Amino acid sequence: MRFFSPEREDLSLGQSVIVAARWLLVAAGLALALVAPASPELLRAQVVFVLLLAVCNFGLHAQILRRQPTLAAIAYAASAADIAIITALVAVNGGYASGLYVFYFPAILALAVAFPPAITVAYVAATIVLYLTVAARGTPAGGEEQLLVRGLVLVAMAVCGTVYSGIEAKRRRGDPGMSRAIEPAAAEVS
Are the beta carbons of 106 and 154 closer than 8 angstroms? Predict the structure, then answer.
């Protein structure tokens, strides 16, 4: 008898991906904030948001290190907080003109690897709506195409993460079809 269901096991394994991606976001966010702050007020806001992200991540990281099962509600709430914090950083940095929207990419990729596809779709839809709401402020004429491309890249990140997650889940569960698909490819490489 297995202690965890396959979905819960996937969530537990995926949490390490999310925690690692979140630490990268914290490090990159602090580095970007400290390299060229536009003003002391903006620097203060950026550091507060990044430290909030770090505090959220610390709890989840401690849970993983103690080998405790991941509670789905906490994992989902922490990822929602990630999206909210990134959106706040984009908003305080000028909306459309802010280059910080790229922080959505690793966050979406990580949650697509960790969460079921239906939940990933909900997060990506919410992220796109939040980003478009924030970016609408200051979008120049003709900037709509750029917003469309950014939204499509978010969707592409989610699709890539979901496909990878499915392949990895099948491999972990010992799907016999996986070895048949991998062996011919491995023979071609050698």
Answer: no
Domain assignment present for residue 40? The answer is yes
Count of structural domains, the chain: 1
pTM over 0.85: no
Question: Is 1 domain-assigned?
Answer: no
Q: Are 109 and 161 in contact (CB under 8 A)?
A: yes
User: What is the three-class DSSP state of 11?
Assistant: helix
Position 168 in a domain: yes
Residue numbers of the domain that contains 93? 6-189
In this prediction, residue 185 has a pLDDT band, given cuts at 50, 70 and 90, of low
Contact 165, 116 (CB under 8 A): no
What tens digit of pLDDT does each residue of 44-85 get? 877 888 888 788 778 778 777 888 777 778 788 888 988 998
State how far the Cα of 111 lies from the Cα of 157, in Å rounded to an integer: 10
Distance CA 57, CA 60 (A): 5
Q: Are the C-beta atoms of residues 123 and 79 closer than 8 Å to each other?
A: yes
Strand, coil or helix: 7: helix
For residue 93, which of 140, 131, 149, 51 has the smallest C-alpha distance? 131
Task: Decide if 86 is inside a domain.
Answer: yes
